[in-house]
Write a structure and sequence with these properties.
Blueprint lengths: L2 H29 L3 H9 L23 H27 L4 H20 L13 H25 L1
Helix pairs in contact: 1-5, 2-3, 2-5, 3-4, 4-5
């Protein structure tokens, strides 16, 4: 099996596992919670998105990643992580701008992940950062979808 096929299989299987966990355990538990508590729980994993800066560390990647992937992925993750932290603070403190911040974070964060995932040419160069898109990104995608669902449910 070639590198891209292994990558794709790992990504899809992780996405399936996280989706099942979310559907069977997390979503039913969060459905009973007020929106701000549910959103806090869903946003917390995104507060670790600073880990994406690893794409800029040459010792962690097999060779320097294509800059068309490395810089947008690393800084997109950093910005998304900072927006997640700001959203957490706003939700926790009950700021009036909390939900607009969550919308902003969720749109920016989702766009960042989708942009990174479309750049398959970077896969062979990921080195030890391989776990980020195959293990962490599926969790982030599932929680982004859950955040959108909760926000849209509130709008109705």
């Amino acid at each position: 099996m070639d590198t891209l096929a292994i990558f794709g299989l790992q990504l899809v299987l992780s996405l399936i596992v996280y989706t099942l966990m979310a559907k069977w355990y997390v979503a039913p538990w969060l459905a009973e919670k007020p929106i701000h508590l549910a959103l806090i729980a869903l946003i917390f994993p995104h507060a670790f998105r600073h880990i994406g800066l690893a794409f800029l560390v040459s010792g962690l990647v097999a060779q320097p990643l294509p800059s068309s992937f490395a810089f947008p992925a690393a800084y997109g993750d950093l910005v998304s992580g900072l927006l997640a932290l700001l959203s957490l603070l706003a939700l926790r403190r009950g700021w009036g701008l909390a939900l607009p911040l969550v919308w902003l974070f969720n749109i920016v964060g989702t766009a960042d992940l989708l942009n990174a995932l479309r750049q398959a040419d970077a896969v062979p160069h990921l080195g030890t950062t391989w776990y980020i898109p195959t293990f962490v990104v599926p969790l982030l995608l599932v929680t982004h979808v859950m955040i959108f669902a909760r926000l849209l449910r509130r709008e109705r």
